[in-house]
Design goal:
Elements: E1 2-6, H1 15-27, E2 31-36, H2 38-42, E3 55-59, H3 80-89, E4 95-98, H4 102-113, E5 123-130, E6 133-138, H5 148-164, E7 172-176, H6 187-198, E8 202-207, E9 219-221, H7 224-252, H8 255-263, H9 265-273, E10 280-284, E11 289-293, H10 299-314, H11 317-332
Parallel strand pairs: 1-2, 1-4, 2-3, 4-11, 6-9, 7-8, 7-9
Antiparallel strand pairs: 5-6, 5-10, 10-11
Amino acid sequence: MVIAVDTMGGDFAPQAIVKGALRGAKQLPVQIALVGRSEEIEKHLPDSAQRPSNLRIVAASDVIAMDAEPTGALRRPESSLFVAVDMVRNQEAQAVVSAGNSGALLALAHARVGVIEGLRRAGIAAPVISRRGPGIIIDAGANADCQPIHLAQFGLMGSIYAEYALDIREPRVGLLSIGSEPSKGNSLTRKAFDMLTAMPINFVGNIEADGIFNGQVDVTVADGFAGNVALKTAEAMAHFVMDDLDNCLRDALNGKLAEFLMTSKLGSLHRRYDYASYGGALLLGVRGIVVVSHGRSDSRAIASAIEVAQRAVEGGVVKHLEQACQQLAVNAN
């Protein structure tokens, strides 16, 4: 398995990206291709004698800035992001990971890798943690404006990902709305409810936002606008609560005791709610594994993102999606 990593994308690139790839190379049974400016990548690698054998450099001279216009990426074939995505297109790699310009990554994935036949849109499946364990929310920001069929297909894509990459048997799929009754919501969610009911998935109906985290579902379906707002709000609240708890303990307890609690008990909580522990979100619906990492990703987050890619490849997520779409087409006829 080869995973292409865009080393030039991200707020802390290339240092954090290269260090994360080194961690991934040591921990995972994969081949990692570091795509970017060779001389800059080399600065952050150990001597060749100490370098993992499953790590190599693929030269790319151009860099797409974080604030660059996404569609402009299609005209920059020498960029690290373009080269990394094209490795998947040309079957030189089974997955690509980038913490760079997410809009450019989505544009390149659609144009160069392509959407699976039968699907209308690709969607971002972002990891979430609930009382019952890991889950996902889809779409987490790729499609701000959706039609009911898009949400229905997001449910199918999310269910397949949860089953084959997260090992969740018969994943429960819920539709994000403002009430649990089928009649609740707007025109989009009411129509999507009927379509999701007809999908070959374990659709459990509407959920409110608290259902994402209380273990009610494994897969939360939403349009990209609502999904992104829900996800970012949850991330911000988690950081706020943990920081506030840290400060309260420091104020109430002596230094050594506070430090002990924060590094032991609270340390495990920090890791549980830290995005770096989950690495990245999968762009579901394209004919290859594309992992969108947080722009602020550190080395731990990049190593986790590489693991996300590995699990999706090993689970055959793309193959299972293609088979599901083919079966839907047969049933429709």
